[in-house]
Amino acid sequence: MKASRGSCHLSLTPIKSVRTAVCLPGFADTSRYWSGQVPDWLDVATLDVEWPGTWDNEHVDDPVSIAIARAVGAVRSGDVVIGHSMGARAALEVANASRPAALILLAPPPPTPAFLTPSAVRQWRTSGVRPTMRPDPLTGRDTELLIDVTYADSWLRRPSSLATVVPTLAFLFSDDAAAPPTLLDATTIIELEGPHRWWESPAASRRVAIEAHEWLVDTLS
């Protein structure tokens, strides 16, 4: 896990009741792609929880469960948990176990494995997953990742659905083929123009920052 603090670029009023934003990335991603924008919403430090073995050489039997346990152990009273894509599914588990002040889901997917074809499920369980190229979070160079069977199967064994137990905001994005709008147990659902990897669109990033900040002010005041 890596803690960092960015600078606030939108001049939004700090939310003093929030201590830290605990961030969980999408499948084969890292939240370092987007967590640097979170201080624009909150003006607080962020804590990035990585999937073991994705961007390092750590080998564990159940990497998703290990990452979720680390996130649960990091959450303190007054924190906010934020998850993108498959990390939003993990963030639900983290919130249920740790009861943060609020939960923000960015492009959450349908319950696993509802969005996978039977052949994709078989591939996950037999040979792992080879996603598209990803920029290395440290070097910025495009890197082809091979997600092994252990990591892929760890996702398939997650709970099929979870109810939220804390105030929850979900963002859905118009160009998002990976995680289309679905039944969500969220306090508030906001649909925005933009891609699944929302941080790659300046317009979507700005809207996320403004909408998340306004919702947190209303929710936590």
Please tell me about this protein's structure.
The chain has helices at 38-42, 63-74, 86-98, 118-127, 149-156, 202-220; strands at 2-4, 20-24, 45-48, 80-84, 102-106, 134-135, 142-143, 168-173, 188-192. With 221 residues, the protein is of the alpha/beta class. It has a single domain, classed as Alpha/Beta hydrolase fold, catalytic domain (Rossmann fold). Strand 6 (134-135) and strand 7 (142-143) form a beta hairpin. Helix 2 (63-74) packs across helix 3 and helix 4 (118-127) crosses helix 5 (149-156). The longest helix has 19 residues, at 202-220.
Q: Into which percentage range does the β-strand content fall?
A: 15-25%
Structural class of the secondary structure composition? alpha/beta
Largest sheet: 7 strands, mixed
Helical region count? 6
In short:
It is built from 6 helices and 9 strands; from the N terminus they run ββαβαβαβαββαββα. The protein is α/β, with parallel strands linked by helices and 221 residues long. Helix 2 crosses helix 3 and helix 4 crosses helix 5.
